[in-house]
Amino acid sequence: MKRRDFVRTTTAAAVAAVSTPISASARGPEVVVRRTITPLVISDVSGIRYRNGGAESAIERAFRGITEGEDVLDALIHGVNIPEQDPTETGIGYGGLPNADGVVQLDSCCMHGPRRWAGGVAGIEGVRTPSRVARAVAELTDHHLLAGEGAREFARALGFEVEADLNTPRSRELWLEWRRRVDPGHWLDPEARKRGLGERGEETDPDVIGRGGGDAVAMSPQALRRRADAWYRAGLDMVAEGLIPAHSFWGTINCDAIGPNGDICGVTTTSGLAWKIPGRIGDSPILGAGLYVDNDVGAAGSTGRGEANLYNLSSAMIVEFLRQGMHPKDAGMAILERIRANTVEPRLQNDDGEPAFDVRFFILNKAGEYAGVAMWGSNENAFAVCDENGAREEPLEGLLAR
Ligand code: ASP
Q1: 88 within a domain of the structure (yes/no)
Q2: Where in the sequence is the domain holding 271, given as residue range(s)?
Q3: Ligand 1: distance of its center to the CA of 20 in Å?
Q4: Spans of the chain below 50 pLDDT
Q5: What is the pLDDT of residue 136?
Q6: What is the reported pTM?
Q7: How far is Cα 268 from Cα 107, in angstroms, rounded to an integer?
Q8: Sign of CA dihedral 55, 59, 62, 66
Q9: Which residue lies with its CA nearest to atom 5 of ligand 1?
């Protein structure tokens, strides 16, 4: 079932809500009266469900800063520093789920609409708050993206604390559990050993459907697919068993805001895909993929399968759709349709041929209209909003319904 009750507005209408040109006389100067916009902060649920033991969530901290006159990007970064430093949020910053080697590698980028600043860090290790390093790249360098060791040494040179390891006992324990599931021959389960199980592999392999000469074995296409993404399935099993919250396996925070003057900024920060190949960079630090801001138009950012956003340059496309006059919800649905159309490989499809992954977008425009959309709608799929009516979760609109 598809949900396509799109809303249509025009960019002209959106802009009119921000500034109204008044001609003083036929020859007189044009006077622009700026109307105050109601500040608005949006993010995925990590922006409202984590407080790092404090009083405020990310969106509450950001909203407070913006209404107290703080620079919009600074307020957002102070906001996302909360889940970045929260050890219980296993998809972002400190305690984020590590890569396949057990190393936490973080990605982040930010954009400052009115100043036209942008900065990002990719695959940075040892710094709990990569969003702050991304901001430093934007503010202090001529560049937009630093990666790996260079990003870490840049942070060190600026006085950021660089730690040897950003794992928490919890993230390490989950990584060990994952290793045991994908490589049980090498990584033994102490509990199973105590029970006298799991020390030998199974003698018969249910995936083998025939055996040729030598070592060659024949496997069904389904079995080959199972083998190819065993690491991914092990992670999904851990989500299904409640060991990892779903929003942490693909955990990321994207947080975007519009301030009272219509200034628009955004930030995205993540530990990326759990158990990724070391060095894998997702969409989150890439301008136009995991985040894009145009101060004249709006902002879009994402969580979920980063490869889909890298391929489709989703956030930049959404902002272009906003520029053409689409409502944020329509713009989000349009990119979801494109991702869906570009998902042609069976390994990425479910049994109905639809994308077997989720990807979510958080979008606002210059008029303060906003939307949260997802490939898959469900009762649990929500995003976070904070405005003059307070912080709350609202349902994500799904292109496809489960
Ligand atoms: N988009 C991020 C990535 O692909 C992670 C996520 O949000 O799931 O690295």
Answers
A1: yes
A2: 40-169+246-302+382-388
A3: 40
A4: 1-27, 33, 199-221, 224
A5: 98
A6: 0.84
A7: 8
A8: negative
A9: 272
